[in-house]
Write a structure and sequence with these properties.
alpha/beta; 7 helices; 7 strands; globular; binds S-adenosylmethionine
């Protein structure tokens, strides 16, 4: 049976590369005033590399906190980590945060849970604190796909659009930004990422469907694959 958890999202992919993380954190620092005394929380932090780099970059006094459903053995040492469902985290939390980061994770919650989750996130901000939500750009997505993956991704992007609209409708003050990263990857490495089901749209595919997909990608792309990984950023 296919696994239903994302284990390989940031497992030696461009999403965990030094260059990606450096550019991503520069984007964050450009859009919010954060410094050594900031309290930072990352919801669905994966291996916590983004937070770890942020900790070094800002010389954070207090280790940033990352929460995730999965506790990876090779997670970043510069973070505090809690294995907990995002929906339960705020029930017992007493800390206020200057930045709550939710990167490519909100779509994994149910629509009915998102509103409540964001309400609780806001309650746990400092007066000037902000929530940064990153999600795949729903319009101009360039993620390399095979046919079945594309169908699944389109479906998931349509749902993401719903989520974004829900957030936009229920918040008076929002800022919308874009973050784009130029990916250059060998086809061999990208095939490995697909094999490892790096993205949630691949989690439910049958082994045979995945094998067909790998063949398709192999025929469709040249040795080097280049595309832009585009994210929408909503700041609340
Ligand atoms: C697509 S990955 C993104 C990881 C990281 N934010 C990044 O962008 O590199 C989504 C992460 O959210 C976690 N996740 C999914 N549902 C969650 C939940 N309800 N509570 C906490 N973490 C969750 C997954 O385990 C996974 O690590």
């Amino acid at each position: 049976m296919a696994s239903t958890v994302i284990k390989n999202w940031d497992n030696k992919t461009w999403l965990s590369s030094k260059d990606y993380i450096k550019k991503f954190n520069s984007f964050l620092a450009k859009n919010i005033k954060i410094h050594s005394k900031s309290e930072i929380l990352d919801i669905g932090c994966g291996r916590g590399k983004i937070l770890g780099n942020l900790s070094t970059k800002l010389k954070l006094k207090n280790k940033p906190l990352g929460i995730d459903l999965i506790n990876h053995n090779d997670k970043d040492k510069r973070i505090k980590f809690k294995k907990i469902n995002a929906l339960n985290f705020f029930l017992n939390n007493k800390k206020k945060f200057d930045l709550i980061l939710i990167k490519q994770t909100i779509h994994l919650l149910k629509l009915s849970e998102i509103k409540k989750f964001l309400y609780l996130s806001k309650k746990n901000l400092t007066p000037k604190g902000k929530i940064f939500i990153f999600s795949l750009d729903t319009n101009k997505n360039e993620i390399p796909t095979f046919k079945l993956m594309k169908r699944k991704l389109s479906k998931s992007l349509a749902r993401d659009k719903k989520i974004l609209n829900l957030i936009i409708r229920s918040n008076i003050q929002i800022t919308k930004k874009k973050f784009s990263y130029k990916v250059k990857i060998s086809k061999k490495k990208y095939l490995d990422m697909i094999k490892n089901r790096y993205i949630s749209t691949l989690l439910t595919l049958k082994k045979k469907e995945l094998l067909e997909g790998l063949k398709e990608i192999n025929l469709k792309y040249k040795k080097k694959i280049e595309f832009k990984d585009k994210l929408i950023c909503i700041i609340l």
